[in-house]
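@channel sequence for tomorrow's demo:
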Amino acid sequence: MVNKPTRDRRGIELAKIHMGANRLGLDTKDKDPDSPYRSMLWAVGRVRSAAQLDASGRAAVLDHMQRLGFESPTYRPKPSKASAAQIAKVRAQLHEAGCDEAYGDALAKRMCKVEKLVWCKPDQLRSIVAALYYHKKRNNRRPSEA
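structure tokens (generated this afternoon):
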């Protein structure tokens, strides 16, 4: 497995710190140095802002937050290479229809008996693309045509 560049890892770790703080009920927007969030950063990393943390400081803050009950978020699964283009097409159709990816997951679950859209096989994705096409066609009819 190839490691991501340091800058990407830093951004991911900072995002996790902010998510963890929010889930633990700490206000990251409060700039008061005596706020619970800033006090925690000072106690663990000797900084008042997460942006000032180095790699070991970010790791220490994340470890501390996990001891407090924060669980790191899971990431969206990646589609297989064979399905990637079709997944992109489905996502574009969903966006055009004003739906989020949860709607795509619901379609996959209902039509293909698969929990997530990205786990569908190419033939299953073709049926979802067709369903979204007919959905668009149905919703774009003029009232006089109905």
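heads up for whoever presents: The two ends are 55 Å apart (CA to CA).
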